[in-house]
Amino acid sequence: MLILTTVLTTGALTLSACGSRDDDSGDDKGGSSGGKKTTVVIGVDAPITGDLSALGLGIRNSAELATKIANKQDLVPGFQFKIQALDDQAQPTIGQQNATKFIGNKDVLGVVGPLNSNVSQSMQKPFNDAKLTQVSPANTGTELTQGDNWKSGDKKRPFASFFRTATTDQIQGSFAAKYLHDTAKINKVYLIDDQKTYGAGLAASFKDTFTKLGGKIVGADHINPDDRDFNSVVAKVKKTGAKAVYYGGEYPAAGPLSQQLKDSGAKIPLMGGDGIYAADFIKLNKKAQGDLATSVGAPVEQLDSAKKFISDYDAAGYKDGYEAYGGGTYDAAWSIIEAVKKVAADNDGKLPSDARAKVLEAMSTVKFSGVTGDISFDEYGDTTNTMMTAYQVEGGKWVPKKSEVYKP
Amino acid sequence: MHELPQQLANGLILGAMYGLIAIGYTMVYGIVQLINFAHGEIFMIGGFGAYTVWTLLPDGSSLAAVIPLMILGGILCSVLVGTAAERFAYRPLRGAPRLAPLITAIGLSLFLQQLVWAFYPDAKSDISFPQFHGDPFHVLGATVQRGDLFVIIAAPVCMIALGWFVNRTRSGRGMQATAQDPDTAKLMGINTDRIIVMAFAIGAAFAAVAAVGYGLHNGQIGFRMGFIMGLKAFTAAVLGGIGNLYGAMLGGLVLGIAESLATGYMGDVPGMDLFGGGAWKDVWAFVLLIVVLLIRPQGLLGERVADRA
Q1: Which of A326, A375, B59, B89 could disulfide-link A370, Cβ–Cβ 3.0 to 4.6 Å?
Q2: pLDDT, average across residues A115-119
Q3: Tens of pLDDT along B194-231?
Q4: Among A149, A180, A144, which residue's Cα sits nearest to residue A164?
Q5: Residue B257 and residue B260: Cα distance in Å, rounded?
């Protein structure tokens, strides 16, 4: 695979080098000479090995599928799309190296990914300096688009090159609070988080909305995400008589936390965000029944707009599933393709010399109906599609309970 | 305060596990003055060994019936790895500057982690460990899970057996002699190499028992579990007086209960509400360690290391 990508990229490099020489000479014979197509590469950065590789492979495959479909439809005449996939192993340092590689390949006009918000933080600046568009299908960290002071209402977009098709933790936490208070009718909650960017942000946004709705936070605590014994915290939860626990964090700690909670005799559900909306959460937690989670978007299986995506994905014969972020990834890749289409259309079907800057400019005008709904980006680079879904564990499976377009 | 019995019970269970692992640190240190930092991984391997036995047994086996087999499997794996580590990683470095085996230990622990990660199916993330079914017991206001009984029983049984071995058997007395003065012990006809291997093996076996307890208590094991548990157990060994067998168990219990109480009550102390959460329990455990070492540098029960110098 790697060799194949390299060969393709090298081939693409030579091709485009010819193209630009033609442009420089001002020769009229340039352009679409001999039916040869201009190759545009979309970079894909995701954890393809390691703990989170299932999600990462879903991202890579879905992005590749988007380019294949666009090529098949001949969406941008005279253009051919390819992906260049790099593995970040969910590590910020590797993500940054990958960013440099993408920037170095001048056929890359946009990058899809990564999965993790902290990896994105290491990639945003190099991409911004290179005016290279980045669209993440999975980053929910609010500060990525709205700056570090978003909690105090001082929203400021830090990097103009960053977009995402996943909505923010601010919306996710707030949606969870509303679901728990209004739909599940629970008004006494114990709040726990793991003090990481994702977990703490989610818990803060949950608390904000939950107290505004009139619910009571009866206690709060933090845990260390590497711990697996939470019995002391559980004893505290039990004392407060909370009717549910909201946990900001990921499933490796949430699984034992939930199980120890029920073992202690407190028969209350644990709720979390998309970090616990994973099959492993149920596998590791024999008492997950009744636990709740929210996730961004609607379950793609339920969307009419996703039917074609699912059948295309199946037809492509990928070994791994599209997982939680497949639909969002397809839309992310597609938004870059749409932007390239606009740039080409504005420039007589050819790429301008400052193609990256032009693509970035075009991103703000991109609008199409994608797999996860209508896709466009607001002034921060956030998706305007704030579809959220609440899930509950029933009979060893996550069952979708409620999907809505949520505006806090 | 009505959850105090619960917090004490939680601390006791956690502390007994620390104590069992700490035996391995303290014994090896007592005899060869080596901190075997790979001991946390030997503990982890014990857990995977027990789990492997479980997966090999027919589906629907009763856990209570097969747990002796699982313990045996865990002990076998741990002892094998522990003695192999002694033979191939530490023995060639005996007599080398102290820093060399320490670095080897750290390298070995990374190696063992990656080995399990690479070869064990599903070990990419945590895997679930079999558990006892049935209602928990209620003892003096505390809820105790069936699986936790294992550690509560295993810890004293192991300690009594160890005490008997060290004081009453020929090998045990040889061990004491080697700890006191290896050169003289050798002159008296004690095979010190064999004694050292034995120290590694006993420590590894105790760690495997602790790992089974860990699996039953937390419901899952993972290839990273040895790091934090190993660090805590090492702390417990130092707290109790490294080199002292009973000190290791006492240190473990003190550490476990201190952690549990810090999580439960530190937040209620006026002005401390910021530092009382579950995330701070490790901080308080180490504060306790520092305080004890300031007052009693040799640890709670002390050791005769000082008069060797």
Answers
A1: A375
A2: 90
A3: 999 999 999 999 999 999 999 999 988 988 899 989 99
A4: A144
A5: 5
Q: Which residue(s) pair with A143 in the sheet?
A: none
Q: Tell me the residue length of chain A.
A: 408
Contact yes or no for A110/A137 (Cβ under 8 A): no
What is the rounded average pLDDT of the residues A367-389? 92
Model confidence at A16, pLDDT cuts 50, 70, 90, reads very low
Residues of chain A contacting B228 with CB distance shorter than 8 Å: 226-227
A62 pLDDT exceeds 90? yes
Helix B192-218 and helix B146-168: axis angle, to 10°? 170
Average the pLDDT over A391-397 and give the result.
95
Give the dihedral of Cα atoms B254, B257, B263, B264; nearest 10 deg.
-140
Rounded CA gap, A346 and A113, in Å?
Answer: 27
Model confidence band, residue A78 (pLDDT cutoffs 50, 70, 90)? very high
What is the token pair recorded at A172?
């996710």
Residues of B in contact with A265 (CB under 8 A): 136, 143
Task: State the pLDDT at residue B122.
Answer: 66
- pLDDT, tens only, A273-285: 998 998 889 988 8
Task: List CB contacts (< 8 A) between B263 and chain A.
Answer: 221, 232-233, 236
B114 touches chain A (CB under 8 A): no
% pLDDT > 70, chain B: 95
In Å, how far is B213's CA from the nearest CA of chain A? 12
Q: Count Cβ neighbours within 10 Å for each residue of B162-192 and write b for 16 or more, e otherwise.
A: beeebeeeeebebbebbbeebeebeeeebeb
Alpha-carbon gap, residue A207 to A189, rounded angstroms: 9
Closest CA to A142 of A390, A407, A381: A381
Residue linked to tokens 């001002």? A26
- Number of neighbouring beta carbons within 10 Å of residue B63: 16
Distance from C-alpha of A40 to C-alpha of A344, rounded to nearest angstrom: 11
The length of chain B is: 309
C-beta separation of B216 from B150 below 8 A: yes
Chain A residues touching chain B at CB-CB below 8 Å:
50-51, 53, 192, 194-195, 220-224, 226-233, 235-236, 238-239, 252, 255-256, 259, 263-265, 280, 283-286
